[in-house]
Amino acid sequence: MYAVGVDIGGMSMKCGLVNEKGEVVDRVIVKTTLGDPYEKTIGELCDGIKELLKKNYLTPNDINGVGIGVPGAVNIKKGTVDSSANLKWYNVPLVELVTQGVGRQARITNDANAAVLGEARFGFKWKYPNVVMLTLGTGVGGGLIVDGRLYEGNEGKGAELGHITLVLDGRQCGCGRRGCAEQYASATALMRLTREAMEDHKESLMWQLCDNDINNVNGAIPFAAEKQGDPAAKQVVDEYIKYLGETILNFNNIFRPNAFILSGGVAKQGENLVNKLKDYCAKQNWGYENTPEPELLIAQLGYDSGIIGAASLYL
Amino acid sequence: MYAVGVDIGGMSMKCGLVNEKGEVVDRVIVKTTLGDPYEKTIGELCDGIKELLKKNYLTPNDINGVGIGVPGAVNIKKGTVDSSANLKWYNVPLVELVTQGVGRQARITNDANAAVLGEARFGFKWKYPNVVMLTLGTGVGGGLIVDGRLYEGNEGKGAELGHITLVLDGRQCGCGRRGCAEQYASATALMRLTREAMEDHKESLMWQLCDNDINNVNGAIPFAAEKQGDPAAKQVVDEYIKYLGETILNFNNIFRPNAFILSGGVAKQGENLVNKLKDYCAKQNWGYENTPEPELLIAQLGYDSGIIGAASLYL
């Protein structure tokens, strides 16, 4: 039994042939050209999917369906992409076009929702019935597994976990509100904190690690410098851990989940990040006394979580 | 078909005989005496339940069970009250004692979780599959209905919706964290804002409405004075609406629910409160463009929601 999973991004559309074990058996990557009309882009996606099937000696009827994860606001009932800033798509009938173009049924979900489904089901084998996943990249994405099922909310627009207030009247967010967690806990925010600290501390080791060019800053730099005892880097890391820790504590009080899964660029810090977060949250007593501590985990499936989760809609 | 629903509070334990339509057919109220050992209090509760059955010519076997809503942290699997600051109960085996004392099976849940179940099921007849309920009283309580089912989280400790950060490093909260929504959006917070405004504005109409005694302040005063055009009251109401509105927008982004239900003292403002919140949230575009607006509703069942929701565990 196979399904095709598609992870649509601003640069490329990754199509994977996924088996019932959640393994990506083969893949085709279709480049996206920003500015192309959506009909052209989706036509190329369908060609890519058909190529993927053909080179595996499969016909459309040999797969259960095509699951698609989309970066943006979807309507899962209508099968449309209502708006995707990354793709510049608005009111695009994606499901209809893919179903026609490939000759097999399709479904869509938000890309972060696809990722948490992939991780909870195939990364962690349904060990945790209630999961909050936070993707720490350009923004803060999120996904929810509630009582063993993907929670998508009205029209599939739920789980925008990066857009809850952490700082009332705080930094302007792209969503139109102010002070969203995304503005403080994303990789982008970590890089901003790092650059600010570097400007204030010309002596910081972080300059060396960037080859003295502030444009080379990435989210790994402050963690690397902090390990070597750099005080400015420690300040950056501590501040970031506080923002991310408070965000996690918020979701802990709301969901009391069995596990948090962290993914995205910042999650590459692995155990170092997890241990610092655990220390921070333990000092806050995880919000309450007498409450079960959730597991803090790093995502297992890497870049494939989106493909696998999207395919999972048909597995 | 009947069940008994119990709503335990710091002052009294309300026991209701509830039929399958969610109607409270009869009730007995048992007073609680703070400082009594829990065995005595629970013994009196069991006597009250047995009295309720007896005066309705029922035996324990004529009911499906006894559902109990408890103010505090429960463990629904073990059937224990882990901690309840209101009752001064810690690690109390409530389910075991009630099951033995009444001679019929019992279950527990958090009282705010019981209330949302009662409202969603019997107040609003399952019209809304995804519901966020906020109880605006001494604190901010909360409950979640997710895909048509009560969401309780790990051990039944989920949905502490008042304890998410609205203001990083803000006001100290009783839970140990800082800046929780409870500190800004509860009736207690509204009264604090009102008293502060009165101190600053000795000319405010709010003084008259309080008989010139600041100890008479309640949550209705600023709304009443604002209706009559009092500027200081308008400032209080606007500020409170902002806090509550931002809290609602946060949960909207997380859950994209079909409806919010507001209950507790502040919700008595009814349509006036709802309309102000809608205006505020509309200006923020409910967080995103192209997203469905949830309904903003006032709870229907009043003080009985807890009894009915608790009984609903067996209906």
Quick overview:
2 copies of one chain form a homodimer. The first copy, chain A, contains 10 helices and 13 strands.
Secondary structure layout plus pairing:
2 copies of one chain form a homodimer.
Chain A: E1 2-8, E2 12-19, E3 24-31, H1 38-55, E4 63-70, E5 73-75, E6 80-84, E7 89-92, H2 94-103, E8 106-110, H3 111-123, E9 131-136, E10 140-146, E11 149-151, H4 182-185, H5 187-200, H6 205-209, H7 220-227, H8 231-255, E12 259-263, H9 270-283, E13 295-298, H10 305-312
Parallel strand pairs in A: 1-4, 4-8, 9-12, 12-13
Antiparallel strand pairs in A: 1-2, 2-3, 5-6, 6-7, 9-10, 10-11
Low-pLDDT regions of chain A:
none
As a percent range, the share of helical residues of chain A equals 25-40%
Rg over C-alpha atoms of chain A, rounded to the nearest angstrom? 20 Å
Order of helices and strands of chain A: EEEHEEEEHEHEEEHHHHHEHEH
Assembly form of the protein? homodimer
Tally of contiguous helical segments of chain A: 10
Structural class of chain A: alpha/beta
**Largest pleated sheet of chain A:** 5 strands, mixed
Strand content of chain A: 15-25%
Report the mean per-residue pLDDT of chain A as an integer.
Answer: 95
The spatial strand order of the largest sheet of chain A comes to: 3-2-1-4-8
| Beginning-to-end CA distance, first to last residue of chain A | 8 Å
Count every beta strand of chain A, where a strand is a DSSP E run of 2 or more residues: 13
Shape of chain A: globular
